[in-house]
Amino acid sequence: MRGLKTPSMIISVVLILALILLSYSKSLAEERFIDNGDGTITDTKTNLMWAQYDNMGDINWHQAKDYCEHIILSKYEDWRMPTIKELATLYDPNEKGYETDCGNWVKVNPIIHLSCGWVWAIEAKTITAYAYNFTKGYQYTDRKVHRRHFRALPVRTIKK
User: Does residue 56 come out as left (phi exceeding 0), alpha (psi in the -120 to 50 range) or beta?
Assistant: First the structure.
């Protein structure tokens, strides 16, 4: 038995390295989202600031747009409705996730609190609009008047 060539020793070294890598990648993910302590979250990857909580109730697309555009949060007044691509950046298939108030299980960093799994996006047509499903991680369209389980999550671009 010379050096580290025994199978048990090699397996031990590989497991230790895997644990170190896992711990490092977790700390990187946690650093991506910063809790500003004022009801907002900064996403350092996308340079966006998100409301920490959605509107906390069923809402149609028109109401969601109005909510996002008129909220004053942490002294900022330039909130808006997110794009579908911006919403998609919050979905993480590797995230453990959490159960929402309406019973959905969402794959989002728990620093952002969604009360249900569907969030409206700004992209819209005459009768329909896009929404993002944080349970399964996909975008789809629905009628703008639909309210059940839909939420508004304001976002703003951080100006440098």
Answer: left
How many Å is the maximal CA-CA distance in the chain?
74
Residues ≥6 apart with Cβ < 8 Å to 156: 48, 49, 76, 78, 79, 80
Residue type, 8: S
Phi, psi of 112 (to 5 degrees): -105, 125
| DSSP letter for each residue of 13-61 | HHHHHHHHHHHHHHHHHHHHEEE-SSSEEEETTTTEEEESB--SS---H
Torsion angle of C-alpha atoms 57, 108, 85, 117, degrees rounded to 10? -30
pLDDT for 83-113, tens place per residue?
999 999 999 999 999 999 999 999 999 999 9
Backbone angles phi, psi at 18, to 5 degrees: -65, -40
Surface-to-core class of residue 32, CB atoms within 10 Å of its CB (0-12 exposed, 13-18 middle, 19+ buried):
middle
